[in-house]
Amino acid sequence: MTSTPAKKIPAPAPSKSALKRWVWVPLALILALGLALAQIDLNAIKEQLVQRVSSEMGLQIEMDSIGFSFSHGLGFKCEKVEVRSPDGNRFSVDRLHLLAEWGPLLQGELKIKSIALEHPEATLTLPEPSAGPAPVSGEKQEEKLPAQTELIDPAALKSATGQLKKTQLSIEELIISGGKITLIRAGSQKQIPFDIEGTFVLNRSAGNRQDILAKALKMQTGSIIFAGDGSVANITTERAAVSFNLTSNNFSWAEVQPALAFLGDPASQTFAPIESVDVNQLSIKAGFPLTALSQIETLQEKMTGQVELKTSNTVLKFADKNYNIESMQGEGTWEKGFLMHKFSGTALGSDFSLNGTVPLFNRDKDTTS
Q1: Mean pLDDT of 215-230
Q2: Cα(232)–Cα(334) distance, rounded to whole angstroms?
């Protein structure tokens, strides 16, 4: 005797009223959003943004247009933005996405939560080395103080941190994609480009402390790439400090030459004995006071850090004679311009080790053994 399969009872069809609710609810939300957006005067937002940046940061800003954007959340998209500083440095960006707080915005107040920059470009001019003081009457020429190479004008650096402290920024995150910075040496044709990407987060804590954290940071010049993270702590105080932790890709000595040519002396003299080398790994963890950016000599003195290095196929030249090092690896720490290192490797088929202290910027004081 065969059993008769039970008939399936079909699920009841949704009522027409339920279907109408599912259709009208999204439409009602879209309509409400459209009405809210219609209340926002984009031209007024554009003028408010331009005036705010100009008055609070002392910068000239121009933009082609502004409209609504949904790519980074509901916000604004500014096209073809260009900013100029009083000292002539230029910054431009193809597209700038602003994510605003909508509660204050509907009341006519602009509070920005995050900024995303697409293909920003900046040109920074580094000043020429300043000459030492002129000798007084009867002073020997060789007693003159050495020239100091200025990186960033100390007054401009102090002014920028002061403006940041006075400006109650609501920005929590800055995202940079496809960025490019070109450094130009004043008084010469020397320049070097850097590509940069990363996410920068502004953290605030008790006592008005402000820290900037850099995540997924990537810097590239030519085919040399460094990736990692970094931070600027206490950015609005005199104790502001920069730190970073970066690791490179593989690169050859030939790929370093454009950077050495831009830096000039003493960097070129420091690495003069190196004929060729393949860098398999270079990791740098370092820190320095923000004020040390005023001069190269101050930066060399104040920077501290650690380095790990792996190389192969190194050729050194001393007294017109080449010395081959098949492989080398090791680590070191540096402070006040001196590197305390411990390296080992293989040269001419034999193992070797190097321990000692090497001056990074004055090779006359080498104590390697």
Answers
A1: 95
A2: 20
